[in-house]
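note to self: dont lose this again. the chain is below, predicted strucutre after it. 212 aa total, dont forget to put it in the shared folder this time
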Amino acid sequence: MFSLSSMVDFYSTFGYIAVFGMLLLCGLGVPVPEDISIIAGGIISGLGYTNVHVMCIVSFFGVLAGDIIVYSLGRYFGVQIFNRKIGKRLLNSSWYDNILKSFQKNGKMVLFAARFMPGLRAPIFLTAGITKFTGYGTFILIDGFAALISVPVWTYLGFYGASNMDVLLKWMKNTKIGIVIVLAVIIAVYFIGKLFKKKIVKAEIIMKNGDE
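---
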């Protein structure tokens, strides 16, 4: 497992290409924390090796490309991917069943939330591809919107904390908690709105029947 300092050393040497390539591998389930990879990219920008704004863009497309590859593997192989090594590494049958139930219960919000759930991103995106839960356009739109939230947060956190990585590690912990809270609020608002909409529709049906 790579540490933050080792990632910084590696990225300092190879720059944008290393960040983009590593994020592709993260999307495929390589055991390197994606958040750490993005923060390390921000740190080398803070140290003067790269431009932070360009790094943010590179990280965004690296994250999105990795997710699209996983989704595409699911669409291409379907359930046959369970017979392949990469499928067995990314997803097991019990997780597949649980994710399917989550899709049925919570809809496309699951795809949005997956971007903020390390360890569950690849299984969820792979399942979305296998089941063709959404088309490419919808998947990219949802995942891209979520990445527009997470990637800049981690990139600029690394940039501004580059001079003191000990303090940065504390910020990472607090920021991760903050992101989880924000995500929970978004999900709560979504479901409250959905419930409220159902009640309005139900009330309209009752009123319509009453008029008849």
